[in-house]
Amino acid sequence: MVSSERRKGRGRDLVLRLLSCLSPEVRLVWALTRATNAIAGCFYNALGFRVLAQLRDFYGSGADAVMYGRFIEPREEA
């Protein structure tokens, strides 16, 4: 069980590190979660992701997914 590792900022740090390492041409980062995973939804919303789509029966047997995306502003190359 990972509940003891939640709320320590590790996931946030990991996503922010990923975002800082993107190549300059990347304009969108997306993530998928089960539609029933409200904790994941709050996590991605707090990091600036927004709902892009609801994916019906994505996981089979009626389990839907939510696609979250974060648009990346163009930046100058170093």
Description:
With 78 residues, this protein is an alpha+beta fold. Helices cover 26% and strands 26% of the residues. It has helices at 10-20, 38-46, and strands at residues 28-34, 50-55, 65-71. A three-stranded antiparallel β-sheet has the order 1-3-2, covered by helices on one side. The chain starts with 9 loop residues before the first helix and ends in a 7-residue tail after the last strand.
Per DSSP, the total helix count is 2
What proportion of the residues form beta strands (DSSP E)? Answer: 25-35%
Strand order of the largest sheet: 1-3-2
Secondary structure category: alpha+beta
Low-pLDDT runs of 5+ residues are none
What number is the mean pLDDT? 91
Q: What overall geometry do the principal axes of the alpha carbons give? A: flat
**What portion of residues is helical?**
25-40%
- Sketch the major β-sheet: 3 strands, antiparallel
Cα radius of gyration in angstroms: 14 Å
Strands, count: 3
How far do the termini sit from each other? Answer: 42 Å
SSE arrangement, N to C: HEHEE
Topology:
Layout: H1 10-20, E1 28-34, H2 38-46, E2 50-55, E3 65-71
Antiparallel strand pairs: 1-3, 2-3
